[in-house]
Design a protein that fits this description.
Helices cover about 20% and strands about 0% of the residues. It is mostly helical. The longest helix is centred in the first third of the chain and has 11 residues. The mean pLDDT is about 75.
Length: about 50
């Protein structure tokens, strides 16, 4: 992270065309493409009553 910060501050902002710079780090993005079945011991109060 220090290297990214140094690059942004030292390299990008030295150009007069760059008024401001911001960096955001994303370490990991986990996304599941399947729906897990609910467990049998899960309360059913969340379902609509018929």
């Amino acid at each position: 992270m220090d290297s990214v910060y140094a690059f942004v501050i030292d390299c990008l902002t030295e150009h007069r065309e760059v008024a401001d710079a911001q960096a955001t780090m994303v370490y990991e993005h986990v996304q599941s493409r399947c729906i897990e079945p609910s467990s049998p011991d899960r309360p059913r109060s969340y379902r609509k009553a018929r």
